[in-house]
Write a structure and sequence with these properties.
It comes from Saccharomyces mikatae IFO 1815. This protein is an all-alpha fold and 233 residues long. Helices cover 72% and strands 0% of the residues. It is built from 7 helices and no strands.
């Protein structure tokens, strides 16, 4: 009986230690991972199998917790870094949407060009809100400052197009985490939600989408002129 109580007490002590490490932050978790890896490497041949199983489970749990910890830190850093960019892009997207909606209502006819622009604007707004928190935000309306890295710009453009294509697909399927209608009501991604992610099949970082990027730039030039005209009205 006393032996059972000692084992139980030891197990509870180990669980408490793990709990404290889990709550202590990334550096302490990393140190504990290194300690366990060294222990298992040096003394695996002499440790009882029950101890080895326990330590391996602890190691697996700590690695998972470290991943979650690093992911949370990445999300927090991205939120702070890109907050203003996303805020202004949402504001610009809403202005474009209401301006186009007004033009459509005033025209009184089924203007295909205006409808296409309205759909593109809806996609852009859904992009801003549903863009993954774990990635560096790729601006929809980057500045025109000449880049010293043309290849980097090309890859960024490709990745933007991949996300826009995914947003359009999810919007048509009514499968966005935050729908367009919810965006109009001011909703954002939930705190526990990461946002959209590209599947391995969709994530072709080296794929060329030159024609679609060219079409998009031409559309932005037209919309930019419309915005200037509206500003001076």
């Amino acid at each position: 009986m006393a032996k059972f109580q000692r084992k139980r007490s030891k197990a509870l002590g180990s669980s408490l230690e793990m709990s404290q490490i889990m709550d202590a932050g990334a550096n302490k978790i990393k140190r504990r991972i290194r300690d366990l890896e060294r222990l298992l490497k040096k003394k695996k041949d002499i440790l009882p199998s029950t101890v080895i199983i326990e330590k391996e489970r602890n190691l697996q749990a700590l690695r998972l917790e470290l991943q979650n910890n690093e992911l949370k830190n990445k999300i927090k850093a991205n939120a702070k870094k890109y907050h203003m960019v996303r805020f202004f892009e949402k504001k610009k997207g809403l202005r474009k949407y209401h301006r186009l909606l007004k033009k459509i209502n005033e025209s009184g006819t089924e203007d295909k060009d205006l409808q296409e622009k309205l759909r593109a604007t809806k996609i852009e707004l859904c992009y801003v809100i549903n863009f993954p928190k774990t990635e560096k935000y790729i601006a929809l309306y980057p500045n025109d400052t000449p880049s010293t890295d043309p290849k980097g710009v090309e890859l960024t453009n490709i990745r933007r197009e991949q996300f826009l294509k995914l947003v359009a697909k999810k919007m048509d399927e009514n499968a966005l985490q935050v729908s367009f209608e919810e965006i109009l009501m001011g909703k954002k991604l939930d705190e526990d939600s990461i946002g959209l992610t590209l599947s391995p099949k969709e994530d072709h970082k080296d794929e060329s989408h030159a024609s679609s990027i060219k079409d998009r730039k031409e559309l932005e030039q037209v919309e930019g002129q419309d915005e200037k005209d509206d500003f001076f009205e």
